Fold:
Amino acid sequence: MTTATGLAPGGPEVARQSLRHRLADRGIDRVLLLLVPGVLFLSLLFIYPFLYGLNLSINPTNGGGPLTNYQNFFSDSYLRDTIWTTLSLGVPAALFNVLISVPIAYRMRGRFRFKRTITTLLVVPIALGTVLTADGLIQLLGPSGWLNKMLLDFKFIDQPLILVHNYWGVLMSLIITGFPFAFLLVLSYLSGIDPNLERAASVMGAGTWERFRRITFPLLVPGLAITFCLSFVLAFSVFPSASLVGDPAGSTRVISIAAYHAAFEQFDYSMGSAISMIMGAIMLGIIALVLGWRSTMFRGATGGKG
Amino acid sequence: MTSSTNVSTPAAPSTLRRLLKPSSIGGWLVWGMIAVFFVAMFALIFTVFLDSIATTWFGSWLPDDFTTHWYGDAWAEFDLANVLLVTGQVAVAVVVISTLIGVPAAYALARRNFPGKRIVTVLFLLPILIPPITYGIPLATVLYKVQLAGSLFGVIVANLVPTVPFVVLVMIPFIEQIDPKIEAAARMCGAGTMTIFFRVVGPLLVPGILAAGVLVLVRTVGMFELTFLTSGPSSSTIVVVLYGAVFGAGIRAPQEVDAMAVLYTASMLVLLVAALRFVNPTQLVTRVGAR
Structure:
């Protein structure tokens, strides 16, 4: 506003200012038209299906009140327990990947030879896919796999360890496929922290551990919270690995299997949508919890780029 | 502490040697973890590869004999030529369309502050923060209702839901680092909006677009849930065919599935290495971190 009056002094000029100008002052101009395709697309294919699903979920197939599906879900222990199963797989997998990524990324952030090669090798699991991971785990850790053979031959154990087609197989599969993402994110947050801060601490006489604990780690925590959220999102949809290396009817019956089963095997779209809504709500609840905790942390300038 | 020199000269060429020197127990632990990770990963890939070239392999240390015919069998039985064609079509279409929709949106979000910007940002964040299987089920239901599910078009549309926001998020930092004064200068010199877009901003954005495109490509080829929920027999990409092959098993030899899994991993590796040539993974999220 001030610039406009500055350019053309005098009262009437302000009144004559066109609507377009006033909108532009608030940041609304034709550039925003560029947003239209994206917003339309997401409204049509993300928001609308979500509302459609919500509406479907409160109109149960077999009649009953709007909350019948939700009541059924929470009163049936076979369905209700899938929440616990999913969380007990997703949270440890995400937590493990984030925590293991911190020291590895801390080592990888400097500049040294073969850095690119080692980083590339660390993210190879992205290329594996669930089926190869599952088959590999079954052949490696199965009752007659190499690990059990070795342990049996060295007489460490008498009976083969049961590591696949149960909780542990799925957890390992989740860790393998989720690690690259957590690692890349942590590495990228770490390289956003100004190395001069650590150098300064070093000059003041702080040792390696102290520098990490007092300088780098506190600056990294907000990034770790985001990384945990994204890793958890990945681990939350364990659908394929839970059926391939897990026990999809029993101990690793995760919530996504229950939703798929309801929607596309029993063709109860209403129940399937209800379970999807519950899934989404749990997911967003956990993200809100983590981000809420994050906002209590220090979020000053990290220096460096960004 | 002797190791304090590590940080003060991080660019020294002998850093690796110094890192490898047993200056700290922690350092050795980390390298040990990395070694365990590599060994486990290679054992994983190796066993599947070994099985895919084995005649039979039950309970012994190594297969009885080796053969390559499983690859030919898998290729013929699953009509892999066609599956790869479908995968390629879906991936290319998703990359092109998500770039066309996402880049302009990212430009508007990077350059303008407007009322409601927070809502639009949340709209673009949600599909990334919610697991695909969660919105995939209602989305597939809607697509079935309008009879798009099962077609190639339906698969492409479903895959666009997470990739459009992904392109937007990757592109925003790229656009923000271009000085708006360059555009202003071009306009002063008489360039129209189209000229500015194609001759000034566009060329500057090419590295960012390549990075986003190649990441979307990897993501789409590897995307299981959405394709699984929306594809039909003629529109399945290789991940879905692979998953189906495991469950359709029964009489089928497991070696065939392994052969196909090896083919899938090999092609994903090529894409991944290509992607890492274009993208510096350490620069992906620094901006989000700064918020």
Notes: Chain A is about 70% helix and 0% strand. Chain A touches chain B through 113 residues (CB under 8 Å).
